[in-house]
């Protein structure tokens, strides 16, 4: 594991009800938790970053093309593109035909159900594992 706090799980005196259930379940198995820093334990490090994998999987090929296409039909996007052209904004810029903002996040136009599709992708992605409303919104905000 790449989380040092987890190595103390078996010896903790105070546990939440959820932790107590897991500790009771895990007591049936013969195992030992050992801490390894992320740079040494590459597999566990990758698995613990499933939300990042979800964000990476989203805006690929087809979705990027649809976002580019939708920019022409979104009045707010057109206004932002005009500001970029006139040098009136530094918060947005154009890259590969896409409208970007801080954190290299993409602007998703309000056209053709794209925003709903982005929400659905972040919520239903096999990497996101049905994360709930707060985590879904966090996944959207990481990339869009």
Structure description:
With 144 residues, the chain is mainly alpha-helical. The chain has one domain (17-138). It has helices at 17-26, 42-47, 50-58, 62-71, 75-86, 114-124, 132-143; strands at 92-95, 98-101, 105-106. It has a 3-stranded antiparallel β-sheet with strand order 1-2-3. A hairpin with a 2-residue loop joins strand 1 (92-95) and strand 2. Helix 6 (114-124) packs across helix 7 (132-143). It is elongated and about 65 Å long. The two termini are 31 Å apart. The model is unreliable at 52-58 (pLDDT under 50). InterPro entries: Retrovirus_Pol_polyprotein.
Summarize the structure.
This protein has 7 helices and 3 strands. The chain has 144 residues and is mostly helical.
Count of discrete domains: 1
Backbone CA Rg: 21 Å
Number of helices: 7
> Outline, from the CA principal axes?
elongated
Q: What's the rounded overall pLDDT mean?
A: 76
Got a strand count?
Answer: 3
Which stretches of 5+ consecutive residues score pLDDT under 50?
52-58
Strand order of the largest sheet: 1-2-3
Secondary-structure content class: mainly alpha
Binned, the helix content reads 40-55%
Q: What's the N-to-C terminus distance? A: 31 Å
- Strand proportion, as a percent range, falls in 5-15%
The biggest beta sheet reads:
3 strands, antiparallel
What is the H/E order? HHHHHEEEHH
What are the defining features of this structure?
144 residues; 49% helix; mainly alpha; 7 helices; three-stranded antiparallel sheet; single chain
Give the helix/strand layout.
Layout: H1 17-26, H2 42-47, H3 50-58, H4 62-71, H5 75-86, E1 92-95, E2 98-101, E3 105-106, H6 114-124, H7 132-143
């Amino acid at each position: 594991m790449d989380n040092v706090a987890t190595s103390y799980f078996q010896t903790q005196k105070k546990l939440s009800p959820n932790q107590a259930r897991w500790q009771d379940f895990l007591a049936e198995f013969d195992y030992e938790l050992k801490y390894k820093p992320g740079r040494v334990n590459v597999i566990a490090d990758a698995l613990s970053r499933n939300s990042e994998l979800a964000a990476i999987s989203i805006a690929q090929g087809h979705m990027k093309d649809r976002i580019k296409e939708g920019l022409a039909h979104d009045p707010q996007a057109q206004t932002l593109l005009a500001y970029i052209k006139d040098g009136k904004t530094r918060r947005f810029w154009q890259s590969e035909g896409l409208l970007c903002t801080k954190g290299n996040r993409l602007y998703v136009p309000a056209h053709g159900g794209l925003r709903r599709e982005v929400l659905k992708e972040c919520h239903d992605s096999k990497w996101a594992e049905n994360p709930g409303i707060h985590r879904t919104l966090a996944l959207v905000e990481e990339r869009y």
